[in-house]
C-alpha cells in the first residue's frame, strides 16, 4: 500500500530548502472513468495520492525558478514510471497558478477524446482584489461541449463570458457580491443549453476568489455513460468541488433537437438527457414503428423510463406538452 503523504509536504521539498517558491492550486477535472482517482508525482516523488475527480488542492508552495516535472499516474500506481503524462514546468517566483487536469486517458469509449493534459493559468488569486467583490476565474473543461457563452440573466449583467472553448480560461471576472443566474448558451447566444444559480451573496462569499469549471459530458451516451455536464466551483482552500444548482429550463428556453436518449440500444432503462429541462410535467408515449401506442406516462424522478417489459425492436419515444409534440426520438430495445 502506498504511503499517504500530507498534501503540504509536496514531494521531498520543505520550505527551508526552497530558495524561491510559487503558489499552485491543482484541480482534477478529467471526467474519464480511468482517471477517477490519480496519483501526482513531482520530480519523481509521490505528492498527491488517490487525488479524486472534482476535487482541488489548496494553494501549495512549489519550487520556482527551476524546472520541475509534474507527472500524473493512475490511482493504483507504484512509481512515477506508471505516469500517463509528464509535464515539465518552470514557475515564476512569488507568482500564483491554477492548474487543471482535463481530457481523456482511455483509448476507447469517448467521443471526442482529447488527451489528458494539464492546463495552466498564471496570475491566479487566493482572494478578490476588492473585498466587496467575488473574483471568478472560468474554465471550459467539458470535452464534448462546444464553444459557449455565459449570460447572466438574474441581475441583468448580460454576457459575462464570450466564446469560451474547451481547455480555455476566461480571465477573472470581478463581480459585485450578489445572487446570479447563469445561462450557458451556444456561441450565438440563441440557444440556452443549461441554467444555473450562482448565489454568491447568499453564501457570503464577499472577498473570495473562485474557479468555476465546466465539467462532465453533454452527451454521456457517447462517453461511457460518464458524469453529466455541470458547472462546479473550486475554492482556494481546496476540497471537493461544489456543484452550482441547476435551474430547470422551460421547453421554450431550449432547442429540442438537443434532447438525447441513452443508452441506445437499451435493455432495461432509457435515460433522457434534457440539459436541465424538468420533464415531470410532460407526458411520454412509446409507440412501435407502425404507430401503435405501447405505453403512456411520465418519467421517473431521474428522467428515465423503464423499458424492460418491451419486446425486442425499434420504438419511438414522443414527449408531449398536453397535445403538442415537443420531441420525438427512436430507440432500440434489445
TrEMBL record:
It holds the Pfam family Por_Secre_tail. It comes from Aequorivita sublithincola (strain DSM 14238 / LMG 21431 / ACAM 643 / 9-3). This is Secretion system C-terminal sorting domain-containing protein. Residues 1-21 form the signal peptide. It comes from the Bacteria. Residues 261-331 form the Secretion system C-terminal sorting domain. InterPro entries: DUF4397, Secre_tail. Keywords: Signal. Residues 22-150 form the DUF4397 domain.
